[in-house]
Amino acid sequence: MTTPPPHPGVLTEADTCREYVTPRLVAAGWSTEPHAIGEQRSFTDGRIIVTGGRVRRGKQRRADYILYYRRDYLLAIVEAKAVGLAVEAGVQQARESAEMLGLKFAYATNGQRIIEIDYLSGSEREVERFATPAELWQRLRAAAQVPESATAHLLEPFNLVSGKVPRYYQQIAIHRVIEAILLGETRILVTLATGTGKTCVAFQICWKLWNSRWNRTGEYRRPKILFLADRNILVDDPMAKMFAPFGEARHKISGGDVSKSRDLYFGIYQALSTASEDIFRQYRPDFFDLIIVDECHRGSSRDDSSWRVLLDYFASAVQFGMTATPLRDEARDTYRYFGNPVYTYSLRQGIEDGFLAPYRVHRVITSVDAAGWRPSKNELDRFGRKVPDEEYQTKDFERVVALRSRTRAIARHLTDFLKGTDRFAKTIVFCVDQEHAAEMRQELLNLNSDLVSQYPDYVCRVTGDEEAIGLTHLAHFQDVDRPTPVLLTTSQLLTTGVNAEMVKYVALARVIGSHTEFKQIIGRGTRLKVDYGKEYFVIIDFTGTATRHFADPDFDGEPARIEEVTVDESGETFDTIVETPPHVRQPEVEYRVETNDGEVGNGIILTDPPDEPRKFYVDGGEVEIIGHLVYDLDSDGKKLQVVRYTEYSGRTVRSLYRERADLQSAWANPDTRSEVLRELTERGISFEELAVSADQPDADPFDLLCHLAWNTPLLTRRERAKRARQTTPDFFGQYSETAREVLSLLIDRYIDRGILQFNTLSELMKVTPFDRFGTPSEIASRHFGGMRGLREAVSGLQAALYQ
After folding, report:
1. What is the residue range of the signal peptide feature (predicted)?
2. pLDDT tens digits, one per residue of 633-669
C-alpha cells in the first residue's frame, strides 16, 4: 500500500491514526470479524490515590490499538505517534503495554514507518506493513507448540452472561492455564492476590474446556471437573453464583451422595474423606479430568497432610492450584507439588492498576505492649491460680495470659476511632482465639450500647463455635445492602476465602507471625466497591504485626501511609512517637499444626504449640493506649521509614523543585499550579493534614511548603493578601470600581479558604456574596469584558499574591 506523504506538524496523533494507521491495519486484514481492532482501549482502572480522606484515580493504562485474533484472544498491540515524530518514540511504550498484557507481538508506528517487536524471536525491526492475523497466529502457535487440533479449546469464547469481561490479567491467567493443559502439563499453579478474582479465572477455564469438550482422553465428551476446597463457604458461594451458568451439570458431593452423572463437582476435603470412610474412593481414580484446588497453600499439597491422599488417588487428573501466596518458606510445599506458577499477579500490581483498594495503617500501642506486663506479688487469676512471676510481652497476651483490661482498652480505642470516622463502616477484628473473640465482642457491645439497642446484631462473633448462627451473621455482613452487622470479631474463620467487599477496617488484636496468613487477612479489605463508597481501607494494628510485615523486603504491596498513635485509656490521643521502639518488634514464634478452630481441618495455621498450658485470666488492672507513628516509603518506594509528616512533605518538595524560585514560578501560574498539586497529591501530601501536623492553620499552602522545604519565613494568608494589595496598585487600578470589589471579595475568600478555592471559580461565584452582582457569566460580561477577561483578571490576581 502506498501512503501519501503527510504534512509534517499539521496532523495530531488522532489524525495520524485515522488517516494512516487504521487504513494500514485494515489492509492487513484486521478490520473484519473475527479479526477485530480495538481502538483506544484502557486495560487498567488507574490507581486509587487517597490524600486527606479524599480519593481520586490516577492515569489509566491505555493502548492505541489492540489487535484481536478472536473476540477474547488478543494477539498484538500498536502504539501510535503523530506524523512528524520519530517512530522510535513509541517503542518503549509499546513494549511496556505488550508485557503487561502478556502479548508476544507489538508495533510502534507514526503512520509512515512501522517497527515490529517480536518477543518470540527477540527481534525488533522496521517492516513495510503490519502482519496479517493468520501470520501472527501461525508464528504464535508454532512457538507455543500447541497442536492445530487443540486450538479450538484455547479460542473458545468466554461466558459473558454476567456482563463482566475478564480483566487483562485474568485473561492472561486463563489462557496460560489452558495452554499448559493442552501442552500436557498435569500440575499447574497460578498466584493471584486476594481480591483479584481467582474464582472468575477458574470459572472461565472450566467453561472454555467444558464448552469445547476438552478431556484427557480426547473422546467426544464433556470433561469431569472437581472444584476442591477446605471450607463449605469456599465451594457453596462459587457453586451458587459464579458457576450458575453450568446449570444442572453442577453437583456438590456431601454425605453419601456420590452422583456420577454430572460434569462439574464441588467438594471439601472433610466431606470427601471422613474419619469413618473415604467417600472419594467411590469414584474411579481416572474419573476426573481436571481438579481445581482453591486456596491450595492451605495444606493439601504437603507430603504429610491428611488430605494429600485425595490428590494422590486422582493423580491422573490435571490438577490446577490457585493461591494468593507467593513463594516463601511457609508455602514451599505448594510450589514443590504444583511447580512454578504459570502466571503471577501481585497485590502491589493490583493496587497500582486500580483493581484493589489501597490502604493506610494505624499502629496503636498499649502500655503493656510497649513495656510488657508483670503480675504483682502472689497475684491470682480469675480461677484463683497464681500467675507465674514472669514478664509477658505481646506474643504472650491471650495465649499465656489473658488481660481483660487490654482487651477493654483495644475495644475502647476502636470504638472511639469509628465514632470519629464512620460507625457503620464494616470492620473485622482478628483475635487470638475464639474465647478472645467472645470477650472482645462483649466489650465492643457494651461500648456501643446506643447502637446495639437499635441494631441487636451491630456487634457479632463469627467463629467455628457459632456454627450456623455465625455463618448467618457473616452472610448479612457480606451483603452490601444490609447495614449490620458492622463489627465482627473472629479468630481464624475469616482469614481467607471470604468475599466481603464493604470491609473498611481490619483490626489486628493478635500477633500474626505467618507472612502468608497476614496477606490473607489484609486481603479481607482489598476488594473495591466504588459505587458504595468503598475505595480504600484502614488496618488498625494493635500488635506490631503490620509494620513488621511491611518491612519485609519480599512484601509486595506497601501501604499508602502508616500512622502510629498514642492514646490514653479514655481513647484520647496524647503523644506522637517518631521512631519504632525496639521492644515493639516482637520475635516471630511459629508453630505448624492442624487446627479445628473455625471449621474442622482448616489446614496449616500458626498457633500455640500443642503442649502450651492453659492460659491465666487476669481481670483487674488498667491498660492505656500510649503511641502514634507515621510510616512512609522512602524515595525509591521500597522501604518503610519512620518520619514526621512535615519532614516527609519538605523532603518531597525538595525532590521535585531544586529551589524555592522554581516552585514559586510554577505555583503562581494557575495552569502549572494544577500540575504541582497533582505531583504532591500523588505523593500523599494533603494540605489539610499538613496544616494540622505543622500547627499552622492560617498559613498559605505555598508558604508552608517553602518553610518545610527550605526553612523560609512563614506568611499567613492575611499577610500575603495585604502585601498583594500594597505592592500591585497598578493591577487593581486597571479595573472598574465594581470589578475591583469582586477581586477584593476573591481576596477575602482566599484569606478564609486558601488558594485552592480558585480551582472552582465558577461554583464559587454562584453563591453569596458574589451572587448580588449576577451570575458568573453576567459578572464576566458586565465588568471584565467576558469570561476570558475574568479568567485573565483572576490569573493576574494570583500572580500578584505570589510575587
Report:
1. none
2. 444 434 445 556 677 788 888 888 888 988 988 888 7
